[in-house]
Amino acid sequence: MPTPQEMLERFQDSYALGDETIDHTHREFLELCLAAANAGGPEFAGAFKALFEHTSRHFADEEAKMQASGYPAFGEHRANHQRILGDMDRFCQRAVAGRAQMARAWLNDSLPAWFDLHAKTMDSALVVYLRQQA
Ligand SMILES: [Fe+2]
Ligand SMILES: [Fe+2]
Question: Name one GO molecular function term (predicted).
Fold first, then answer.
């Protein structure tokens, strides 16, 4: 699985979906993943919290687009968001409480794999739909 750094390096070829706002948000997401992964001990919790808050807005913005356009797979896409945001929230709380080890492992191992698949399937399908509606 590519790291967030590698995903940013090959963003245009592998992750750009053609929606300016969503692509911009996804670059920011990867930059915040990278910043958290590189954050040293005392800075980790704050960096992880910044990622969590950004992800919360990222998902809310996509969900607003889905609702406004009557997107048929809204429920499934939102459920996937809610699952990952719930995990991120729990790891964020642990990190803020000084227990960063599991949050770091999740950030390094699970979150990049989730983003890779989610961007290439659910977000990609959403962008195709939005383009057809325009
Ligand atoms: Fe997204
Ligand atoms: Fe999404």
Answer: metal ion binding
58 alpha carbon to ligand 1 midpoint, in Å?
A: 6
Q: Find the 26 Cα to ligand 2 centroid distance in Å.
A: 10
**pLDDT tens across 28-83, in order?**
999 999 999 999 888 999 999 999 999 999 999 999 999 999 999 999 999 999 99
Tell me which residues have their CB within 5 A of the ion that is ligand 1.
Answer: 123
- Residue 42 vs residues 7, 10, 88, 95, 129: alpha-carbon distances, Å: 26, 30, 19, 10, 43
Q: Which domains does the chain show, CATH number per domain?
A: 4-133 (1.20.120.50)
